[in-house]
Automatic annotation (TrEMBL):
<feature type="domain" description="K Homology">
    <location>
        <begin position="303"/>
        <end position="368"/>
    </location>
</feature>
<keyword id="KW-0694">RNA-binding</keyword>
<feature type="compositionally biased region" description="Pro residues">
    <location>
        <begin position="387"/>
        <end position="401"/>
    </location>
</feature>
<feature type="region of interest" description="Disordered">
    <location>
        <begin position="368"/>
        <end position="401"/>
    </location>
</feature>
<feature type="domain" description="K Homology">
    <location>
        <begin position="229"/>
        <end position="301"/>
    </location>
</feature>
<dbReference type="InterPro" id="IPR004087">
    <property type="entry name" value="KH_dom"/>
</dbReference>
<keyword id="KW-0677">Repeat</keyword>
<feature type="compositionally biased region" description="Pro residues">
    <location>
        <begin position="368"/>
        <end position="378"/>
    </location>
</feature>
<dbReference type="InterPro" id="IPR036612">
    <property type="entry name" value="KH_dom_type_1_sf"/>
</dbReference>
<dbReference type="GO" id="GO:0003723">
    <property type="term" value="F:RNA binding"/>
</dbReference>
<dbReference type="InterPro" id="IPR004088">
    <property type="entry name" value="KH_dom_type_1"/>
</dbReference>
<dbReference type="Pfam" id="PF00013">
    <property type="entry name" value="KH_1"/>
</dbReference>
<protein>
    <recommendedName>
        <fullName>K Homology domain-containing protein</fullName>
    </recommendedName>
</protein>
Length: 401
């Protein structure tokens, strides 16, 4: 015979009658059924944004799970009562509904570079999934996201992917003073700072550390590569400064500015010379500044020689010549630059060492006195020895020709 069950109150008791060979198995089945249908209760927290959705879903859930429910604590908690097995099913269904509709928060701590990058991509992150808010707390260097579980996870995954890719292709450049100035100098009619414009165009974060002269680049791999190419053009600038001797200033400028104009024209760089301090600044592209410095060094080498000669005032017109003809000829013959100060009676010669030495020789030859017409001492002695005594046709002493 099959096993038979009977319930006899009070107190409630389940009576089991079965053949001996079935009794053990029947007892196990009975105990399992009793455990599954044991009376129990459970509580579920109900966020305010989920209450309306839950109230709408309760009728169908109660029909499916055969349990009793009641709201407590001003509808912030749902109590579920009934058979343990049924309560467990209802509890799982309510938890799933709460997870789907409850708002969650997630925060991500950022570095300074990541904060700048998220600022650029903030609009894109906010549009990833509807219903998720993304807020950047710049001072705290934190991203705060709020939304329901599934879309929130998608947005957080997008943020993690952005930060991970940016970390893998981060670039750091050492800047010169000219490059630093170029990046922060306002450009165009809008006077927009170049570094900000590059960030917007390429969607990369550019952080400049002035104390260490470092530029950090963060962004998507393709965006960083494009920004680097743009930087090669933008940062093709250089700046060279030196203090030149005061005597070299006229050489650099040249007559009517001819030398400094030639330096600018041939190099493409700008030359800014402060005559009072001798400070010279060369600016332009890297190639232009290098060429300008090379031409400048050549010019100074060619005019490294400098000699001065003080003359008598009456010799100044002789050196200059009519209409400057003589001094022009001296310059042409020597290759040196020759200037005469009429007030100081001073001749200044500049050029290469060989040029100024030749110019000095030519000027000295020009102003040297003509050779004397008196006979050499040997000739005078010979004539004195052969002259007749005084009174015999010889001139008086002291009147020798």
């Amino acid at each position: 015979r099959p096993a038979q069950f009977s319930l006899q109150p009070p107190p409630p008791m389940l009576i089991l009658a079965a053949p001996a060979r079935l009794l053990e198995a029947a007892t196990a089945i009975a105990r399992a059924w009793l455990e599954a249908h044991r009376e129990t209760s459970a509580a579920v927290g109900v966020p305010a944004e989920v209450l309306e959705v839950l109230q709408g879903a309760l009728p169908a859930l109660l029909t499916e799970h055969f349990v009793r429910v009641a709201f407590e604590d001003d509808h912030r908690k749902l109590m579920i009562s009934g058979a343990d097995k049924l309560v467990g099913g209802m509890l799982e269904a309510v938890h799933a509904l709460v997870r789907k509709h409850a708002l969650e928060e997630a925060s991500v701590a950022l570095s300074a570079e990541e904060t700048a990058l998220v600022q650029i991509h903030l609009r894109a992150l906010r549009s990833v999934r509807e219903g998720v808010t993304v807020e950047l707390l710049r001072n705290e260097k934190t991203v705060l996201m709020r939304g329901t579980a599934e879309p929130l996870a998608v947005v957080k995954g997008e943020l993690d992917a952005l930060l991970g890719e940016a970390e893998g292709c981060a670039v750091q450049l050492t800047l010169s003073a000219a490059q630093m100035e170029r990046l922060h100098r306002p450009q165009g009619r809008e006077r927009e700072v170049l570094v900000r414009k590059l960030q917007e165009v390429h969607e990369v974060a550019l952080l400049v550390e002035r104390s260490s002269m470092l530029l950090s680049m963060r962004g998507r791999e393709a965006a960083v590569a494009a920004a680097q190419k743009a930087m090669e053009l933008v940062l093709d600038v250089d700046d060279h400064e030196r203090v030149v001797p005061m005597a070299a200033i006229p050489v650099i400028i040249g007559r009517a500015g001819a030398n400094i104009k030639r330096l600018k024209l041939e190099s493409g760089a700008s030359f800014d010379l402060d005559r009072a301090s001798g400070r010279l600044r060369v600016q332009g592209t890297k190639a232009g500044v290098a060429k300008g410095c090379e031409l400048l060094d050549e010019l100074l080498d060619q005019n490294a020689g400098h000699l001065e000669l003080r003359v008598h005032g009456r010799q100044v017109p002789l050196i200059i010549g009519r209409g400057g003809a003589t001094i022009r000829q001296l310059q042409a013959d020597s290759g040196a630059s020759i200037a005469v100060s009429k007030e100081e009676h001073l001749v200044r010669m500049r050029g290469s060492k060989a040029q100024v030495e030749l110019a000095m020789q030519l000027v000295q030859q020009l102003i040297a006195p003509p050779p004397s017409s008196a006979p050499p001492p040997s000739e005078r002695n010979h004539r004195a020895a052969t002259a007749p005594p005084p009174g015999l046709g010889a001139p008086p002493p002291g009147l020798l020709p």
